[in-house]
Amino acid sequence: AQKVTQAQTEISVVEKEDVTLDCVYETRDTTYYLFWYKQPPSGELVFLIRRNSFDEQNEISGRYSWNFQKSTSSFNFTITASQVVDSAVYFCALSEAKAAGNKLTFGGGTRVLVKP
Amino acid sequence: NAGVTQTPKFQVLKTGQSMTLQCAQDMNHEYMSWYRQDPGMGLRLIHYSVGAGITDQGEVPNGYNVSRSTTEDFPLRLLSAAPSQTSVYFCASSWGQGANGYTFGSGTRLTVV
Known about the structure:
Chain A is an all-beta fold. Chain A is 0% helix and 53% strand. Chain A starts with a strand and ends with a strand. The mean pLDDT of chain B is 93. Chain A binds chain B through residues 4, 6, 9, 32-33, 35, 43-45, 47, 50, 52, 91, 93, 95-97, 99-109, and chain B through 31, 33, 35, 40-45, 48-50, 56, 58, 88, 90, 92, 94, 96-99, 101-102, 104, 106-107, 109.
């Protein structure tokens, strides 16, 4: 069964600090996909990144970066030089290639509060 | 393209009432699903469909019904609302397996009193 754990429920930082969100996953499938979503106070889910299990390259997109390590089953997310607009709940999610109905399993989410 | 459209955005129900949450997508996606979001638990799968006429249960199906008569529409029915169904509901669609990603609706905030 697939499982995603986000151990940090809430992180508070001051603007311009870096913040790293942890994500640990469990799966028996060899082919799977990992996602990060942002949920701002307005409530919608904003897609940030998708990574497949065969691509362990780290990725950087502006102030966002992701570190995927299959050896530790982790897919961590770092926001560099945080801004108030980064305040949101962030979800890590996993989809197994063989999952019925294309099921997406979410972690419990990490609330990030960036103070000015 | 509208993507995935959910209606209504907000709803208050009394215990025992029934209602239908609407979800429509215009991307010809074969997969559609309903999730509920509760504090600290992320999103959990309620029901899903892999094509018109085919539906199945997810992780938390009790108290909900779905049908998929067309590719575009996937309504979620609450048969007899209970306070435990107070939640935010998201509809999602995708084409094929996870490699192609998911498109989420904007959510429906439901309160059962």
